[in-house]
Amino acid sequence: MNDPASRSGFRILAGLSHACLIVATVAWSLSLRMPGPLPAVMIALLLIPLLLTIRGLLADQRYTYQWLSLVLVIFIGASTTEVVASLRAEPAAIVVMLASATELLSILMLIRSAQPRRLE
């Protein structure tokens, strides 16, 4: 599990699903058809944690993986609620649900395969 090839594969999978999650979140927010400036505010609130984690994902920081895994649970919960509660689910909500679940699983594998830190 600690071989560099599998870790690299999980990093690529996490990066691709993170990009997909960002695009799907914008599409999902725009498809909700809310009045006024609410869509822009909602997009900003949803994208801030996703955009703040890009640097940590590129640097392969374990803290970023741990923090992002908590954020992804919220995305999975919100998108699953939207898919189940609405009579006709928006395709973007389904993509958000699948992308966030895929990214969460790959991040959990990255956390698990990370080398433990030595406390001195």
Q: Point out poorly predicted stretches.
A: none
Query: For the report, how would you describe the main beta sheet?
Result: none
Structural class: mainly alpha
Number of domains: 1
| DSSP strand count | 0
Beta-strand residue fraction: under 5%
Could you report the average pLDDT, rounded to the nearest whole number?
Answer: 82
Compute the CA-based radius of gyration: 16 Å
Overall shape = elongated
- Terminal residue distance: 26 Å
- Helical coverage, percent range: over 70%
Give the oligomeric state.
single chain
Please write the string of helix (H) and strand (E) elements. Answer: HHHHH
* Count of DSSP H/I helices: 5
Question: Can you describe this structure?
Answer:
The chain is mainly alpha-helical and 120 residues long. Helix 1 (4-31) runs antiparallel to helix 5. The longest helix has 28 residues, at 4-31. The chain has one domain (4-113). It starts with a helix and ends in a 7-residue tail after the last helix. 79% of the residues lie in helices and 0% in strands. It has helices spanning 4-31, 38-52, 54-58, 62-85, 91-113. It has five helices and no strands.
From the structure above, extract its key features.
mainly alpha, 79% helix, elongated, 0% strand, 120 residues, 5 helices, single chain
Which SSEs are present, and which pair or pack?
Layout lengths: L3 H28 L6 H15 L1 H5 L3 H24 L5 H23 L7
